[in-house]
Design a protein that fits this description.
190 residues; Rossmann fold; 8 helices
Length: 190
Amino acid sequence: MVTDASRWDEKYRTASLAPALRIEPLLQCHQTDIGELSAPRTVLDVAAGACHAAVYLATQGFAVSAVDCSSVGLALGEKLAEREGVSISTIEADLSVDDLPAGPWSLICCFRYLNRDLLAPMAAILAPGGLLFYSTFNLHHLNKAPTFNPAYVLQPGELAEHFSMLDVLDLSDGDDPQETASRIVARRSA
């Protein structure tokens, strides 16, 4: 049986170390908010893959833990961190069965991964004043990629509903048919 871990391991085995650090646009757009986070400045990168977001946030002075099911992806992330002159902690875990690492976390990010069972726990392990960055495909992605599994796309309004306990700083929740991804940046009340 092909598991998520084996499927992603195979994908990352054929990948090489990226020639440059890829910075998530959502993190770049909110650099001021990120810079204002107070100590202890800890980050959890959920479904980190090859850890580009984790490594970028480590270059910004955060203590970063990256969690993913792929040991091969995490190993690429460790090499990327070394090349960028920072260190990250990696945690191999199958997020379909394992819990998220206990918080509190100053910042939690998750890009291009949807597990609805993790959304409320992400909000719960944010430190007071902590930031959540979340972005993944929405219903409109199916127009561009009709064979994509519809179970892994957000419906319009879903992020606002799942993260209603947080204070929203930035939200695009699937209302615009031209946008194939939904995103939220939100803060836990202090």
